Amino acid sequence: MIPLIARKITSYVLVFILFAHNINTLAIIGDFVINQEFIAKTLCVQKEAQKGCNGKCQLRKELSESNTTSHSDIPFQQTKQLVLDAFFISDINEVNTPSLEFQSQKQKSISNVQKLIKMYLEIDTPPPNIC
To answer: Which residues, in sequence order, are CB contacts of 85 under 8 Å at separation 6+?
Structure first.
């Protein structure tokens, strides 16, 4: 019972961690929608001449600040890759050969297909009526 509950709690925590970035973006957008009039009046660059901005410049600025990890200027560090070769050694005690039963079934199915094709080709088909 306890391991089952622990697994459920762990899965919920991991799902929350996976969606944390999206939740952060949704929180920023939700805050903007709720306080759009206040942002447009006080924080917007074009306070007097609102030409369709209505605080969207501030939203763009907040979203770019929250997404700093994807646009970092730090170059990627090259890491030296190590190769690990693993080998598995075992004794072969038995060699399986293809069963003769499978091969005989395969030959029967091929002969049945050939019979069907022959029967289909023997059916008389009238010529098309081109009038």
So the answer is: none
Contact 31, 43 (CB under 8 A): no
SS3 call for 88 = coil
C-alpha span between 49 and 39 (Å, rounded) = 14
- Cα 41 from Cα 53, distance rounded (Å): 11
Would you say 63 and 25 are in contact if contact means Cβ atoms under 8 Å apart? Answer: yes
Residue scoring higher pLDDT (87 or 19)? 19
Cα–Cα–Cα angle for 47, 62, 20, rounded to 5 degrees: 150
pTM summary value: 0.40
Residues 79-97 as b or e (16 or more Cβ within 10 Å = b): eeeeeeeeeeeeeeeeeee
